[in-house]
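HUMAN: I'm a chemist; might I ask for a sequence paired with its structure tokens?

ASSISTANT:
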Amino acid sequence: MLKRIASGLVAIVLAMPAVAAAPAGIEVATSMAGEAVPHLNSSSVLVLNGLTGEPVYQKNPTKRVPIASITKLMTAMVILDSGVSLEEPVTITDAEIDRLKNTSSRLAIGTTLSRRELLLLALMSSENRAAAALARSYPGGTQAFVARMNRKARSLGMSDTIYYDPTGLDVRNTSTANDLARMVRAAYGYPLIRAFSTTHEHSITAANNRVLQYKNSNALVRSGEWEINLQKTGYIQEAGRCLVMHATVGTQPLIIVLLAAGGPSARVNDAKAIRTWLEGHPSSWLAG
């Protein structure tokens, strides 16, 4: 069983040099002194001690890349900050049709759900029309909502992040692993985001009275083998496979950011490799 981080690790980590942005095609990875690092597919990676915020592993953490549906964590925070009623019904309209990527959705036009259910589907299953409807029904509409997303990012110190839409379908939604770790830490302060992002499945009744079963988009949540406190997946072609998590390994809370992974299973394999690596070197980062 893993134990809490030793004070000696903090000193080691604090002594680590900061990682500058790497030139294109150059991989920069650092970890605890003297330890071989795992080979990871993701282009940008950051693993933080969830208690202290100190880095345990980092690879190109300042590289700015598209973030796809990781965006929806910010969407959720803006909705919850606004104080709008989560019980108010919102109907899916033609405005929610994806005209950027022409992706499909099982959430049919005319379906009416509470704002609470839309938030659940956006976080749990990464339902794009749910996120779009949340923004459209915000006071002032989508444009005001996206402006509020960017103001929220600035307030969190996310200086290398910008949002153009609430779903992540817009490739111009970009950030860094460093900034997204800040976002995860902030989102962790919202109990509803923790609960909804880690819900395994949920059923809704669509406009045609069909009962639709939605499942969590994160295979690690579905497997039940991890203690995941908050998570969000993301994918568009330009962003690759992305994943952010607040998870507990042994007794240690960690923030894990994985960006621009390749194949469908790459981000999950990277997360598993990180966990195996940490569990295999407890003396390096945990008290003995």
